[in-house]
Recover the amino acids of this structure.
């Protein structure tokens, strides 16, 4: 059996399924053996917002096809032959079941549907037509978790806290895969891939500004310029953007007049899809996350899960 994950979301869990059909599995592994230039080491290609790659892994420690690694990426810019890699990824994506034989936790938030499969294939074609460039991340500043209170220049009498960008807190093997953009923006490492509203029974499956805003406000977020008292220290400034009908993404302001974010299970970073420092989430390169929904404060009483 093979586990397939399409690495493309930031807020929602990635589309994931288990390939249980023995014939399909052998066909895929056979195609992989014949297409070695299509394979890449996971998470070494494009890592920005939007479609990144397809991750395939064997589920058993005794499951190994000759000449095929137990875990690999396809449809990746890190592949030697990117076009061949995308062709193989397309073939794997077409195996996505609409009724999975194995029910995964991810399916509660990201159900496998015909529309989702179409969206993935559309994004894969867009990816191939205009291959994204990717830059090595700039070296992070030394850790300094101290907070500074700043007055909001857009809101009279409102204040919030900013802290030094500290990606090392998020980018470890035991933490990074289990926390997403919402965790990062709230600055709360729950290890549950937190979803807006889930802690309060208000989670939404509708990916729109209004729906995700309502869910997040159920957790206790308030819109910018709704001043929070000192008792809510530390208060964070967050920004929400939407990939219409597909996914959401959050940013958090850092000390130094820039913004940090963490696309899904990828690394926390301070740069956008063009490799530029995020100084304004409204104008940053965001891929398919084209709708800017607004800014929010999150105080200490905001609980997420």
């Amino acid at each position: 059996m093979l586990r397939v994950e399409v690495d493309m979301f930031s807020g929602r869990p990635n589309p994931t399924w288990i390939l249980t059909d023995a014939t399909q599995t052998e066909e895929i592994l056979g195609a992989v053996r014949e297409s070695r230039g299509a394979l890449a080491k996971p998470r070494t290609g494009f890592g920005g917002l939007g479609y990144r790659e397809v991750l395939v892994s064997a589920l058993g420690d005794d499951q190994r096809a000759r000449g095929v690694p137990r875990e690999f990426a396809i449809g990746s810019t890190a592949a030697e032959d990117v076009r061949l890699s995308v062709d193989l990824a397309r073939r794997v994506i077409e195996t996505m079941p609409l009724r999975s034989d194995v029910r995964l936790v991810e399916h509660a938030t990201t159900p496998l549907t015909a529309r989702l499969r179409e969206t993935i294939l559309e994004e894969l074609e867009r990816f191939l037509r205009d291959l994204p460039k990717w830059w090595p991340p700039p070296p992070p500043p030394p850790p300094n978790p101290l907070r500074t209170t700043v007055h909001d220049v857009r809101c009279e009498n409102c204040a919030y806290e900013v802290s030094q960008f500290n990606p090392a807190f998020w980018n470890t093997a035991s933490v990074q895969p289990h926390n997403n953009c919402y965790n990062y923006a709230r600055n709360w490492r729950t290890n549950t891939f937190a979803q807006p509203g889930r802690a309060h029974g208000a989670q939404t499956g509708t990916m729109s500004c209004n729906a995700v805003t309502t869910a997040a406000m159920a957790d206790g977020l308030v819109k910018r310029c709704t001043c929070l008292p000192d008792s809510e220290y530390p208060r964070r400034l967050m920004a929400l953007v939407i990939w219409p009908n597909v996914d959401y993404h959050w940013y958090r302001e850092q000390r130094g007049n820039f913004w940090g974010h963490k696309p899904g299970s990828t690394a926390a970073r301070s740069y956008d899809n063009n490799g530029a420092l995020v100084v304004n989430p409204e104008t940053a390169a965001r891929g398919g996350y084209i709708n800017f929904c607004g800014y929010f404060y999150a105080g200490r009483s905001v609980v997420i899960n």
Notes: The CA atoms of residues 51 and 179 lie 18 Å apart. The two ends are 31 Å apart (CA to CA).
